[in-house]
Amino acid sequence: MVKGYGYLDSTVEYQAALRELEDRYGNNEIIASSFVKGALKWPYVNPNDSKSLDELAIFLSECEDAIRSIDSMKILEYPDNMRKIVSKLLLYMHDK
How far apart are CA 42 and CA 37, in angstroms? Predict the structure, then answer.
């Protein structure tokens, strides 16, 4: 996406690329919606699938970081949504 601005003067190129990134990724509501949908629709982690468990852990860490800066992400902290997320884990992990 940013490569297309390479033909411009460097000061103009930087500002144009920054605007493009802001337009595409700067809407907190869209970002929050994407995180929430991803967390609630995440597939169940199967036993002996450490890769899937690791991917979920990384994604939930990203969600935790986003909750600190995007108010609408706090919906993931609602008890019903927490139960849905925890249900993705293996049974012995639910209490932890």
Answer: 8
